[in-house]
C-alpha cells in the first residue's frame, strides 16, 4: 500500500492527467488480454493447489498441467497484441509503450503466483514484492523526470507489479522437478472444464473493474481517464486493507471445503465482522478527506477527481463484504451463483457507464461503479438472509461500529475547521480518529475487539 502513496503523487505531477490517462488506458486493454489469456486459471489454480498441497505428486502434476495450459493461451494472447498494435489508431501512436506493457502477459503466465498463494507461502510473496518494488521505485525517480518519460513509467508499472514473477518461476524448482513430467504424461486439457467456469466469473468481474477506464478512453478523453484513475487508484489503495483478508481466506476456506463445517462458518462470520469494523471508518475517512488526499497525492491539476473520489468512497464497504461472500461461494464450489450475481453487476455497470460517461465523464464513471458495487452487495445480503435467516455479520457489532463512526466523523469535521494544512490533516486526523474509533469500540465492550485483545494478551503471557 505504501508504494503507490510514494510514487503516484510524483508521477501524477510529472506526467499530468493526459500521460496518466494514456498509460492507464493501455493498462486496461492489456489487463483484458491478460484476462483472456489466463482463462480464469489463477483463481481456479489457487483452489486446486490448496486441495492437493499435502500430496507432493498431485501437487507437482497439477502445477505442471495448469502452467502448460496457461502458456498455450498466452501465445494466443500475443497474436491479439500484434493485431491491436497495428490496427487500432489510439494504440499505433504509442505502439512501443503498448508492446512494453504487454510483457505483463508473459510475467503473469510464468509467475504462477497462484501456486504460492495455494500453499499459503505468503511470507515469500511479501519479501519478494518488497524487494522488487523498492528497486523499481528507486529507478522510477531516476528515470521519470518529464512528460516525455512516459515509456519509463510503463516499464515501472510492468516490472514493479509483475516483474517479480520471474523469480517465482525459477523458485518453483524448490517444489517441483519438471523433468519428471514429460509432455506426453501431462493432461492440461482436463482442467479446461473447471477453468471455463472461473473464466466466465473472472470476465464478468473484470468488466466493472476495467470497463470504466476503457469506455472513458473511447467516449471521453485521456484527461477524464486520468481524473478517474487518480480517484479510483486512491479508493482501491484503501480498499486493499480490507480485501487483503480475502487473499489468505480462500485457501483456508477451500481446505475446510464444507459450508456446514462449524469452523467454516466461524471463520466466515469473523471475516465479515472484521470487514464491517475496518471498512466503515475507512469509507467515512475517505469521503471527508477526499479533497486533501487528491490535492496532496495527485496535485492541483486533479481537482476534477475530488467528486469522483467522494462517490467512490462507499465501495470500500460494498466490495469488502461482497468479496468475502464471493470467496466463500467459490471455496465450496458455488461458482454458478457468483457468476449470475456478477453478470447482473456487469449489465448494471455497462448500462450506467454508457448513459453517464458522455455527460459526466469521470464523475459518471464513479457513479456507475458505486451503484454497481452496492447492487452486488445487496444481492449477496438478501440471499444470505433467505438461506440463513440472519445477517452475514453480527448486528450488534455493526451498530457499535456505526456509533463509533458517527463519533469520528464529528471529530473529523471539527478538526478540518481548525487545521488548514492539507498535509497536517492527512497525517493527524486519521491518527487521532483511528485511536478514538477503537477506544470507543472497547468502551462499548464490542465482542470482536474484546476477542482480539484477549488473543494478544494470551500470546504475550
Reading the helices and strands in chain order gives HHHHHHHHHHHHHHHHHHHH
Number of helices, where a helix is a run of at least 4 consecutive DSSP H or I residues: 20
Number of self-contained structural domains = 3
By DSSP, the count of extended strands is 0
In which range does the helix fraction lie?
over 70%
Show unreliable segments: none
Oligomer: single chain
Mean pLDDT: 84
Gyration radius (Cα, Å) is 23 Å
Inertia-based shape: globular
Cα end-to-end separation: 32 Å
Structural category is mainly alpha
Largest sheet, in brief, is: none
Strand content: under 5%
Task: Describe the 3D structure.
The structure is a single chain. The chain has helices spanning 2-38, 41-52, 56-87, 89-92, 95-101, 103-111, 113-118, 122-143, 150-162, 165-171, 192-219, 222-256, 262-288, 290-297, 306-312, 315-331, 335-388, 395-418, 422-443, 447-460. The protein folds into 3 domains: 1-186, no CATH class; 192-393, no CATH class; 395-461, no CATH class. It has 461 residues and is mostly helical. It is built from 20 helices and no strands. The two termini are 32 Å apart. The model has no long low-confidence stretch (mean pLDDT 84). Helix 14 (290-297) packs across helix 19 (422-443).
Short key terms for the protein model shown above:
mainly alpha; 3 domains; 461 residues
Summarize this, please?
84% of the residues lie in helices and 0% in strands. It has 461 residues and is an all-alpha fold. The radius of gyration is 23 Å and the shape is globular.
Amino acid at each position: 500500500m505504501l508504494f503507490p502513496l510514494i510514487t503516484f503523487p510524483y508521477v501524477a505531477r510529472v506526467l499530468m492527467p493526459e500521460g496518466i490517462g494514456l498509460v492507464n488506458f493501455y493498462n486496461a486493454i492489456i489487463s483484458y488480454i491478460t484476462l483472456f489469456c489466463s482463462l480464469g486459471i489463477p483463481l481456479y489454480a489457487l483452489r486446486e493447489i490448496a486441495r492437493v498441497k499435502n500430496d507432493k505428486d498431485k501437487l507437482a502434476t497439477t502445477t505442471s498441467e495448469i502452467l502448460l495450459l496457461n502458456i498455450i493461451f498466452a501465445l494466443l494472447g500475443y497474436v491479439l497484441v500484434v493485431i491491436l498494435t497495428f490496427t487500432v489508431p489510439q494504440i499505433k501512436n504509442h505502439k512501443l509503450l503498448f508492446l512494453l506493457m504487454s510483457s505483463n502477459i508473459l510475467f503473469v503466465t510464468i509467475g504462477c503466483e497462484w501456486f504460492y498463494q495455494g500453499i499459503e507461502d505468503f511470507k515469500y510473496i511479501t519479501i519478494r514484492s518488497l524487494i522488487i518494488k523498492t528497486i523499481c521505485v528507486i529507478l522510477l525517480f531516476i528515470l521519470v523526470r518529464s512528460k516525455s518519460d512516459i515509456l519509463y513509467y510503463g516499464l515501472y508499472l510492468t516490472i514493479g507489479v509483475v516483474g517479480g514473477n520471474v523469480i517465482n518461476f525459477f523458485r518453483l524448482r524448490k517444489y517441483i522437478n519438471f523433468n519428471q513430467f514429460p509432455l506426453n504424461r501431462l493432461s492440461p486439457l482436463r482442467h479446461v472444464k473447471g477453468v471455463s467456469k472461473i473464466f466466465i466469473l473472472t470476465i464478468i468481474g473484470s468488466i466493472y473493474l476495467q470497463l470504466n477506464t476503457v469506455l472513458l478512453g473511447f467516449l471521453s478523453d485521456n484527461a477524464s481517464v486520468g481524473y478517474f484513475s487518480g480517484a479510483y487508484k486512491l479508493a482501491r489503495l484503501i480498499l486493499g486493507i480490507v480485501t487483503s483478508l480475502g487473499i489468505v481466506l480462500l485457501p483456508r476456506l477451500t481446505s475446510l471445503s464444507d459450508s456446514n463445517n462449524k469452523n467454516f462458518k466461524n471463520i466466515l462470520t469473523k471475516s465479515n465482522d472484521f470487514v464491517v469494523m475496518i471498512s466503515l471508518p475507512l469509507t467515512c475517512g475517505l469521503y471527508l478527506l477526499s479533497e486533501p488526499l487528491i490535492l496532496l497525492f495527485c496535485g492541483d491539476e486533479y481537482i476534477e477527481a475530488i467528486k469522483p473520489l467522494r462517490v467512490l468512497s462507499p465501495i470500500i464497504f460494498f466490495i469488502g463484504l461482497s468479496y468475502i461472500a464471493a470467496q466463500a461461494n467459490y471455496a465450496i464450489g458455488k461458482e454458478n451463483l457468483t457468476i449470475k450475481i456478477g453478470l447482473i453487476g456487469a449489465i448494471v455497470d455497462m448500462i450506467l457507464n454508457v448513459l453517464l460517461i458522455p455527460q459526466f465523464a469521470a464523475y459518471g464513471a464513479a457513479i456507475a461503479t458505486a451503484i454497481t458495487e452496492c447492487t452486488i452487495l445487496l444481492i449477496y445480503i438478501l440471499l444470505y438472509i433467505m438461506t440463513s435467516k440472519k445477517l452475514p455479520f453480527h448486528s450488534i457489532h455493526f451498530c457499535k461500529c456505526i456509533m463509533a463512526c458517527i463519533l469520528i466523523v464529528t471529530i473529523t469535521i471539527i478538526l478540518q475547521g481548525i487545521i488548514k494544512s492539507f498535509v497536517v490533516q492527512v497525517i493527524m486526523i486519521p491518527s487521532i480518529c483511528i485511536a478514538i474509533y477503537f477506544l470507543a469500540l472497547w468502551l462499548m465492550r464490542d465482542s470482536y475487539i474484546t476477542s482480539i485483545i484477549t488473543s494478544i494478551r494470551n500470546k504475550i503471557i
